[in-house]
DNA sequence: GTAGGGTTAG
C-alpha cells in the first residue's frame, strides 16, 4: 500500500509514559467502565471531561479501548482537539476505532492535512482500514481538495472491497464534486442502487459551489422523494449563485409540496430576502420561525439581523440582537455591518468596542464592518486607530478590502493626496477596485490633477473591468473631455465587457418588481409614467432643475434631462406610490450607486408626497424623510 | 459493548 506521499511529520507518537497495567476482567472493573462511559456521554462542555479523565487514570483504565474511544469522541464534540491529541499520544496500540474517532475530531476542527497524516500513520502501523476510517479520510481529502491523495484512497478502498459501502460512495461523490471532477462524481452517483436523495444533495451542493446552478437543478429534478435538506440545498445553491427569484420559487414549491422548512432553509431564504430587500417575505420567515418554535441560534439570529438591516429596518435588527440567547462574533458582525450601512456609525463603533470588552475576538469581517462605519461617518482618526490596531492588538493582517475602506474614507473627506499616498504605501498589491474608488472620489471632489495620475495607473495595471472603464469614461466626461470618455467606452465594448445595467426593485404584496432604465415592460407602465410626469411637474414647481452633469454621454441637454427622469429608482418609486397605501414607507433596492440628481429629486419627492423613502444602493442606505436624507448628502 | 447521510451569517 503506498499512501505515504504525505509525510507523517506533524505528529509523533511517543512511547506511553504510563505503566501498562491493563484492567482485569472483574465485575467491579466492568461496572466502572460502564459508569465512565455513561458519565462521558452526558458531558456537554469540555470542563466536565478532565475530572472524568483523572478518574479513568486513577482506576488504570487508560488503555481500555472502549473508554478511550468515548473520551476522544467527547473531546472532539466539545471542540477540544488538543486534549484529544494528548490522550491519543499515550495510547499504547490504538486500533482502527481510535484512529477513526481521532481523525473525525481533527476533520471537525478543520485540520484536514493533519487528519490525512494521521491516516497515513495508521496504515504505516499496519492497521487495516475499514469503511468508517476510509469515509473519514475521504471527507478530509474533499475539504482539502486533495484530489491526488483522494484517488489513492479510492484505489485502496477498491482493493479492500470497501467501495460498495454507501458512506464511502457518498464521500467519493463529495471528494470528486468539491474537486470539480464531475465525470467521476457522476460515475459514483450512477453506481448507487437508487437515485439516493442524500447523494443527490451532495451533487447539488457541489454543482452550486462551482457556479453550475442549472446542473444542480437537473440533479434535483431527478430525485423522487425530496426531503427538507435536499430542498434547502437547491434553494441555498440558487441564492449563492445570485438566482434569488428562482430560489423563492423553489421555496414556494417546497411548501406547496408539503415539505416543512427547517432552520437552515430559513437562513437561506433570509439571505435571499436580505439581498433582494424583500422585507415582507423576511418578516414572514421571522414569524414562521416563531410560530413553529424553530430555535433562533446564532446563525438564524445573524441571518435575521442581516435581513432586517439590509431591508433598512435597523431598529428591528437591534431588537433581535438584544433578545438573542446566544451571541457570538457572527451576530456582532451582522449588526456592526448593519449599523454601518444604515448610517449609524457611532453605534457600530460602540458595538465593536463592546464586543472587545466582552472578550469576543473580532475577525477580518468585523473590521470590514467597523471601518465601513468609520468611512460612512467620516471618522478619520478613529478609523486609523482601528486600522492600526488590527495587526498590533488583534493579530489580523489587513487585506485589500480593509485598505479599500481607508481609501474610501480619505476619498470621501477630500483627502485625496493622502489616499493616493496610502495606496502606494500598502504592503499588499493594489487592484483596480481600490484605484477606481479613488478615481471616483477625484471626480466628485473635482480633483482632476490627482485623478489624471490615478487614471494613468488604472490604464497601466491593465486589469480593468467594465466598472473601471465606466469610471474612467465618467471621469473624463466630468471634465468635458468627450473624446477620452468615448475612447474608454470603446475599450469597454472592445473588451467584450458589458456595463451592468442599473436596476431597481421594490417589493409589493410579496412580489418583487424590477425596473431598468426607461423600462416599459411592467403591466402598469402607463400609470407609472403618468405618475412620473405628475411628479416631474411638481418637482419643477419646487424649483428643481436636473443636474445634467452627472450624465456622462455627449448628448443634448434635453435628452440628458429625460435620461435622468427615467432612472430605474424613479420608476420603482413611482410604482410604489401608485400601489401602496398613503403614508407607508417605500423601500427600493438599487444595484448601483444612486446618482446625485436622483438623490436631490428623491429628497423633494418625500416633501411632495409626505412619504418616507428608504433606498438601498450598492454602498449604503439612504433614509429619505421630509426632504432630508440620513446620509447627510455625503456618500 | 466502540461509529456518521446531505443543507447554515458577511
TrEMBL record:
Domain DYW residue range list: 543-635
Xref: InterPro entries: DYW_dom, E_motif, PPR_At4g14850-like_plant, PPR_rpt, TPR-like_helical_dom_sf
Domain of life: Eukaryota
Gene Ontology molecular function: any one: zinc ion binding
Keyword Repeat: yes
Keywords (A to Z) from UniProt: Repeat
The keyword Hydrolase is assigned to this record: no
Pfam families: DYW_deaminase, E_motif, PPR, PPR_2
Start-end of each PPR repeat: 227-261, 328-362
GO biological process, one term: RNA modification
NCBIfam families: PPR
Protein family (similarity comment): Belongs to the PPR family. PCMP-H subfamily.
Protein name as catalogued: Pentatricopeptide repeat-containing protein At5g59200, chloroplastic
Organism name: Coffea arabica
Amino acid at each position: 500500500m503506498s499512501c505515504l506521499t504525505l509525510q507523517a511529520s506533524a505528529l509523533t507518537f511517543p512511547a506511553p509514559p504510563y505503566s501498562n497495567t491493563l484492567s482485569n476482567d472483574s465485575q467491579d472493573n466492568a461496572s466502572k467502565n460502564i459508569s465512565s462511559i455513561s458519565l462521558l456521554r452526558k458531558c456537554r462542555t469540555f470542563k466536565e471531561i478532565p475530572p472524568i479523565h483523572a478518574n479513568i487514570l486513577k482506576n488504570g483504565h487508560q488503555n481500555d479501548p472502549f473508554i478511550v474511544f468515548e473520551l476522544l469522541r467527547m473531546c472532539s464534540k466539545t471542540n477540544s482537539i488538543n486534549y484529544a491529541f494528548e490522550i491519543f499520544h499515550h495510547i499504547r496500540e490504538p486500533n482502527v476505532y481510535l484512529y477513526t474517532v481521532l481523525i473525525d475530531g481533527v476533520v471537525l476542527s478543520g485540520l484536514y492535512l493533519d487528519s490525512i497524516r494521521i491516516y497515513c500513520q495508521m496504515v504505516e502501523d499496519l492497521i487495516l482500514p475499514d469503511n468508517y476510517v476510509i469515509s473519514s479520510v475521504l471527507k478530509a481529502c474533499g475539504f482539502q481538495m486533495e484530489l491526488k491523495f483522494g484517488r489513492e484512497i479510492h484505489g485502496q478502498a477498491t482493493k479492500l472491497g470497501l467501495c460498495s459501502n454507501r458512506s464511502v460512495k457518498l464521500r467519493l461523490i463529495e471528494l470528486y464534486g468539491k474537486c470539480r471532477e464531475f465525470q467521476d462524481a457522476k460515475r459514483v452517483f450512477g453506481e448507487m442502487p437508487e437515485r439516493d436523495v442524500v447523494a443527490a444533495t451532495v451533487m447539488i451542493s457541489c454543482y452550486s459551489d462551482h457556479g453550475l446552478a442549472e446542473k444542480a437543478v437537473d440533479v434535483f429534478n431527478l430525485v423522487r422523494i425530496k426531503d427538507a435538506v435536499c430542498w434547502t440545498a437547491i434553494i441555498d445553491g440558487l441564492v449563492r449563485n445570485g438566482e434569488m427569484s428562482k430560489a423563492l420559487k423553489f421555496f414556494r414549491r417546497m411548501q406547496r409540496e408539503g415539505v416543512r422548512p427547517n432552520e437552515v432553509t430559513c437562513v437561506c431564504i433570509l439571505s435571499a430576502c436580505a439581498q433582494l430587500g424583500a422585507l415582507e417575505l423576511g418578516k414572514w420567515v421571522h414569524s414562521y420561525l416563531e410560530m413553529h418554535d424553530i430555535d433562533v441560534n446564532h446563525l438564524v439570529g445573524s441571518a435575521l439581523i442581516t435581513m432586517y438591516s439590509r431591508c433598512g429596518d435597523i431598529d428591528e435588527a437591534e431588537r433581535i440582537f438584544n433578545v438573542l440567547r446566544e451571541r457570538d462574533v457572527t451576530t456582532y458582525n451582522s449588526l456592526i455591518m448593519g449599523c454601518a450601512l444604515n448610517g449609524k456609525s457611532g453605534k457600530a463603533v460602540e458595538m465593536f468596542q463592546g464586543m472587545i470588552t466582552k472578550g469576543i475576538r473580532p475577525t477580518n469581517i468585523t473590521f470590514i464592518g467597523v471601518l465601513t462605519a468609520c468611512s460612512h461617518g467620516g471618522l478619520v482618526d478613529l478609523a486609523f486607530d482601528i486600522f492600526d490596531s488590527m495587526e498590533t492588538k488583534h493579530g489580523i493582517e489587513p487585506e485589500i478590502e480593509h485598505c479599500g475602506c481607508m481609501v474610501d474614507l480619505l476619498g470621501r473627506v477630500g483627502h485625496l493626496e493622502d489616499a493616493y499616498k496610502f495606496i502606494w504605501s500598502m504592503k499588499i498589491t493594489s487592484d483596480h477596485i481600490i484605484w477606481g474608488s479613488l478615481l471616483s472620489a477625484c471626480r466628485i471632489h473635482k480633483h482632476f490633477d490627482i485623478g489624471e495620475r490615478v487614471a494613468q495607473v488604472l490604464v497601466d495595471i491593465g486589469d480593468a473591468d467594465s466598472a473601471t472603464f465606466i469610471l474612467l469614461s465618467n471621469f473624463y466626461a466630468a471634465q468635458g473631455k468627450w473624446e477620452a470618455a468615448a475612447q474608454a467606452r470603446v475599450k469597454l465594448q472592445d473588451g467584450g465587457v458589458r456595463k451592468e445595467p442599473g436596476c431597481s426593485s421594490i417589493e409589493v404584496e410579496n412580489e418583487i418588481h424590477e425596473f431598468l432604465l426607461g423600462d416599459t415592460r411592467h403591466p402598469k407602465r402607463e400609470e407609472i409614467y403618468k405618475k412620473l410626469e405628475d411628479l416631474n411637474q411638481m418637482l419643477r414647481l419646487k424649483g428643481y432643475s436636473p443636474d445634467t452633469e452627472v450624465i456622462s454621454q455627449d448628448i443634448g441637454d434635453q435628452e440628458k434631462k429625460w435620461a435622468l427622469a427615467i432612472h430605474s429608482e424613479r420608476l420603482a418609486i413611482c410604482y410604489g406610490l401608485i400601489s401602496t397605501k398613503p403614508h407607508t414607507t417605500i423601500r427600493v433596492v438599487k444595484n448601483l450607486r444612486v446618482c446625485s440628481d436622483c438623490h436631490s429629486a428623491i429628497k423633494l419627492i418625500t416633501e411632495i408626497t409626505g412619504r418616507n423613502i428608504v433606498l438601498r444602493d450598492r454602498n449604503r442606505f439612504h433614509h429619505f424623510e421630509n426632504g432630508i436624507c440620513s446620509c447627510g448628502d455625503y456618500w
